[in-house]
Amino acid sequence: MRSADPPIHGHAQRLRRQAPKAERLLWANLRNRGLAGHKFVRQLPLGSYFVDFACRESRLIIEIDGATHSTDEERVRDQGRERYLKAQGYRILRVQNADIYESVDGVCELILATI
């Protein structure tokens, strides 16, 4: 991170560089309007949160869930995050890592159906 970069921008860049494999696989299908012409961005800062992927024009957030969303504490934190994001006018689609590994095409179909 260059010293002139705002902290949020630098944090988003780090998250993109360190993206888990499932996020990279899905991003390969979403980037450059690759999903039926819809523009997605990744690691978008919204309030104090960073969302995995967002399509601003359809107000859809896609969250990729791995093993880190399995405890009661993590689920409570996710619920608070979802309340905030929904209050900003977004819909949230949660996708499991395993679903992306098993059928990234199926996940893309689900995203299109949700849009």
From TrEMBL:
Annotated protein name in UniProt: DUF559 domain-containing protein
Native organism: Labrys neptuniae
Ranges of residues in domain DUF559: 11-114
Top-level lineage group: Bacteria
